[in-house]
UniProtKB/TrEMBL annotation, chain A:
Reaction catalysis annotation: holo-[ACP] + malonyl-CoA = malonyl-[ACP] + CoA
Broad class of enzyme this protein falls into: transferase
Organism whose genome encodes this protein: Cytobacillus oceanisediminis
Keywords tagged on the record: Acyltransferase, Transferase
Native organism taxonomy: Bacteria, Bacillati, Bacillota, Bacilli, Bacillales
InterPro entries referenced in this protein's UniProt entry, alphabetically: Ac_transferase_dom_sf, Acyl_transferase_dom, Acyl_Trfase/lysoPLipase, Mal-CoA-ACP_Trans/PKS_FabD, Malonate_deCOase_MdcHsu, Malonyl_CoA-ACP_transAc, Malonyl_transacylase_ACP-bd
GO biological process, one term: fatty acid biosynthetic process
Its EC number(s): 2.3.1.39
Family listed: Belongs to the fabD family.
Pfam families in alphabetical order: Acyl_transf_1
Presence of keyword Transferase: yes
Protein name: Malonyl CoA-acyl carrier protein transacylase
SUPFAM superfamilies: FabD/lysophospholipase-like, Probable ACP-binding domain of malonyl-CoA ACP transacylase
SMART domains: PKS_AT
UniProt keyword annotation of Transferase present: yes
From TrEMBL, chain B:
Residue intervals passing through the bilayer: none
Protein name: Malonate decarboxylase alpha subunit
SUPFAM superfamilies xrefs: NagB/RpiA/CoA transferase-like
Organism per entry: Cytobacillus oceanisediminis
GO molecular function, a single term: transferase activity
Length: 308, 548
């Protein structure tokens, strides 16, 4: 039985998420290191006001997820695979030993700043449930215009697809999806059109920065967001960390692949349970739990029982 | 005349003897020490060998596959793997690690995404995708294995094997290698002094190794009646009355879906009320499905021959020896190859299900971006041109008076017009067509071809395709029962009456079935507990099916 650690992306953040982490010395050490590297008190990042900025959101997610994965490690629980969704990929990279936490903090902060600056208004993302990727792609291609660009982006489940681009373009696709049999089609509360070519320049800038960061071959396989492959090659991990911001996250394939590789327990790091809920639908043969919902102790117990 | 050159006619045997000679450092008899299995495989297998690895959809030679994946790729490389089912992660690790580079297989459902990715990434070279019988056949023709790695329950020190209820494909793989101077290595759960019975003689086996854990075995054919829906019950009623009863189907095979489980569970209730007992469903090519227990207990079933076993059914089978094939020890004897052949040639009817059906009745279970292969459905889901014996149901498929006319196998597809997630089953074009292009296959991976299909059943009704005499009529009959799918929407409802009159389609009311009667209360067993009761406590369901 194999164990995977999952690292959530934006949308999973919660107010006070860094204040409500499990009480463990390894968590305290990670929070302290984060404060030292960023040069500010990280307990200021998870207020309702601070979380309106994608910079705070992304940093909070990285810090919370790495803190808990280190707590597991300190207790002797190590995953066989790591997979992060979007910014979650950085927590995954740290946990599998490909990247130092301090480097991840710096890059993630830059990622947030670049994303915030890229599209100040009029852009965003939407999510469609009840249609498959091909149906959504066909709609998006028919509606796309230079003036109102829109792209299909993340494939979260077989029937849950996000779209990214200009608000008018997104709304047109959402309308058509609603009429075309979608269960739900709604605008997401994000102001950056992530995971589509509109963010190519952000990806390029991140790559320039990452080129000077030490990325190592990981000790366990890392799930690449862009290619939906489990990889060990440090150069491919570097590219994935840089360019996942401007490419669709193929989460549906990633989660299926983890199962094909023998994963039977998937533990989602804080915060939230978005990935766990997706997995429960996609992977009926595996156990999916989240630290936020099930508690650190229970997840630890399951990991010990499943994977010993 | 003297031959110009001396040549040996025993090269395969000499090569085998040379390899066995090298085993002296590892074992002096035929028992390989468990902890030396990797070293033994590196000794007995040579680069470039054709290796058949037992792994079907139930039983897996999991200890040997894991050991092979740990081999040193500097010593073992370029292996050509032959596997009926690619199911375990290490099956593909063999390619990832550079130990094997080519594969011929039949089913890859549990690894279908990684399989497609590795093909796309050039990490494995694909031979062909087969049906089970084809792959077994080629083991004796042009894919003769150098090495067979198989699994058994028990062995004795002479190498005799007991495979018990899960004999499955072991004898076929052993025969192909063992009688062509190949090397046969069997993993066993335990070594004993006396076997319950001998399933494979020791003289066919070269080496035995005791595995560190019992071989992997999946309870793949257990369907909990709790999940059967009213629509599946309606369809089951239509099948029993409008197909089995109408044509007098006495011998058949069922797939593993909930819709066929519903049919099995309606025989003692709805079937009985129609007075069909003894007239239909007497002889089966089928695994020991727990959902068949009520029909067996009610006296419907005369015989069942099995592809493989089913976890939890061991004691029940042993206590029903008139019905099942059993050894003198009492336990089931299954045989995948023979049961596939029986299901191909000797039964009157096959029922399957599908993810997609096109307007001509071609069906496919292909999902884009995945490569799952075929398994055994196409072996049974076609009209075998070599059949010569007749039966009532087979003759009932004759539609013309040509003096050379012959009967036909009944090939039935039971589907709901929409899958989960609002995906239409009836589509303009199968995803298999796109998959052919994506993966670079020579032919589109069609599971059952339309011209083999005699009946399609949906929640709307039955299309009697064997009666149609033109493609146009076939399309009309399919469209008439395709609901509001893209194909169904093309149907002109004015034609429905004509199709009903001519018997090309039947709606539930034409079969005197009231939709409101299709209720779960008709099921002979509504949950696993009741199956256990029917079996008089002999069926012992695996933990995951116990809710009490």
């Amino acid at each position: 039985m194999k164990l995977a650690f999952l690292f959530p992306g934006q949308g999973s953040q919660k107010v006070s998420m860094l204040h409500s982490l499990p009480d463990h010395s390894a968590v305290g050490e990670v929070l302290q290191e984060a404060s030292d590297v960023i040069g500010e008190n990280i307990y200021n990042l998870d207020t309702a006001e601070a979380l309106t900025s994608t910079v705070s959101v992304q940093l909070s997610l990285l810090i919370a997820s790495v803190a808990v994965s280190k707590a597991f490690e300190a207790e002797g629980v190590r995953p066989d695979f790591v997979a992060g969704h979007s910014v979650g990929a950085f927590g995954a990279a740290v946990t599998c030993g490909a990247m130092d936490f301090a480097d991840a903090l710096k890059i993630v902060k830059l990622r947030g700043v670049l994303m915030e600056q890229a599209f100040p208004s009029g852009y965003g993302m939407g999510v469609i449930s009840g249609l498959d990727a091909k149906s959504v792609c066909d709609m998006v291609e028919a509606i796309f215009s230079e003036e109102n660009p829109v792209y299909s982006s993340n494939i979260n489940a077989a029937d849950q697809i996000t779209i990214s681009g200009s608000i008018p373009g997104i709304n047109k696709v959402l309308d058509q999806a609603s009429q075309g049999g979608a269960r739900t089609a709604e605008l997401l509360n994000v102001s950056v059109p992530s995971h589509c070519p509109l963010l190519n320049s952000v990806g390029d800038s991140l790559y320039d920065k990452l080129a000077h960061i030490n990325i190592r071959s990981p000790v366990v396989l890392y799930a690449s967001n862009r290619k939906a492959r489990l990889i060990r090659n440090s150069e491919q991990i570097r590219e994935d960390l840089a360019f996942n911001v401007s490419h669709p996250v193929r989460w549906y394939e990633i989660s299926s692949l983890l199962c094909e590789y023998g994963t039977r327990l998937l533990i989602e790091m804080p915060s939230g349970n978005v990935l766990t809920n997706l997995n429960k639908k996609t992977l009926p043969g595996a156990r999916s739990v989240s630290v936020d919902e099930n508690g650190f102790e229970n997840c630890f117990f399951l990991a010990k029982r499943f994977c010993s | 005349m003297q031959a110009a050159k001396q040549r040996s006619w025993n090269r395969r045997l000499e090569a085998k003897q040379k390899r066995i000679e090298k085993m002296k450092g590892i074992t002096s008899n035929r028992i390989i020490p468990t902890h030396q299995i990797v070293e033994a495989l590196e000794t007995l297998i040579m680069p470039g060998d054709r290796v058949v690895l037992e792994g079907n959809n139930q039983k897996q030679a999991s200890f040997l596959s894991a050991a092979l994946a740990q081999a040193d790729p500097k010593k073992l490389f370029n292996l050509h793997m032959i596997m009926s089912s690619i199911s375990r992660p290490e099956h593909l690790d063999l390619f990832e690690n550079g130990i094997a580079d080519k594969v011929d297989f039949s089913y890859a459902g549990p690894q279908s995404l990684r399989m497609a990715q590795m093909l796309e990434d050039g990490k494995l070279a694909m031979g062909e995708i087969h049906t089970y019988v084809e792959l077994y056949g080629r083991l004796f023709i042009d894919l003769i294995p150098s090495v067979a790695l198989v699994a058994a329950d028990k062995a004795d020190s002479a190498g005799n094997l007991y495979t018990g209820p899960n004999t499955e494909e072991t004898p076929t793989l052993v025969e192909a290698a063992g009688f062509s101077s190949g090397i046969v290595i069997a993993q066993v759960n335990e070594l004993v002094d006396e076997l319950p019975r001998v399933d494979i003689p020791g003289s066919w086996i070269d080496f035995v190794v005791v595995a560190d854990q019992p071989y992997q075995l999946e309870p793949l054919f257990t369907r909990d009646p709790r999940h059967i829906t009213d629509i599946q019950i309606l369809q089951a009623m239509m099948v029993i009355r409008g197909i089995y009863g109408k044509h007098g189907v006495k011998s058949l095979n069922h797939g593993i879906g909930y819709n066929t489980a519903a049919i099995e569970l309606l025989l003692p209730t709805y079937g009985e009320s129609l007075g069909l007992k003894g007239k239909i469903c007497k002889h089966w090519a089928l695994n020991p499905h727990p959902t068949l227990i009520p029909a067996i207990e009610s006296g419907w079933v005369e015989s069942v021959h099995c592809f493989g076993g089913e976890v939890g059914m061991e004691k029940y089978v042993a206590a029903r020896r008139d019905i099942f094939f059993t050894g003198h020890d009492g336990s089931l004897r299954s045989n995948r190859t023979l049961c596939q052949l029986a299901g191909q040639y000797a039964v009157d009817l096959f029922v399957g299900s599908s993810l997609q059906i096109d307007e001509a009745g071609n069906s496919s279970t292909v999902t884009r971006g995945r490569l799952a292969g075929f398994g055994g459905a196409p072996n049974m889901g076609h009209d075998p041109g070599g059949r010569r014996h007749s039966s009532q149901a087979w003759l009932d498929m004759m539609t013309d008076t040509n003096p050379l006319a012959r009967g036909r196998k009944l090939v039935v597809q039971v589907v709901e017009t929409f899958q989960n997630g609002n995906k239409p089953v009836f589509v303009e074009s199968l995803d298999a067509v796109g998959a052919k292009k994506d993966i670079g296959l020579e032919t589109a991976p069609v599971m059952i071809y339309g011209n083999d299909v005699t009946h399609i059943v949906t929640e709307e009704g039955i299309a009697y395709l064997y009666k149609t005499d033109s493609m146009e009529e076939r399309r009309q009959a399919i469209a008439a029962i395709a609901g509001v799918t893209p194909i169904g929407l093309k149907h002109d409802v004015k034609k429905t009456e004509k199709l009903r009159r001519e018997g090309l389609i039947a709606l539930p009311e034409d079969l005197e079935i009231r939709r409101t009667d299709a209720k779960r209360s008709l099921l002979a067993a509504k949950n696993v507990e009741e199956l256990v009761e029917w079996s008089e406590g002999l069926y012992e369901p695996p933990a995951k099916f116990r809710s009490w």
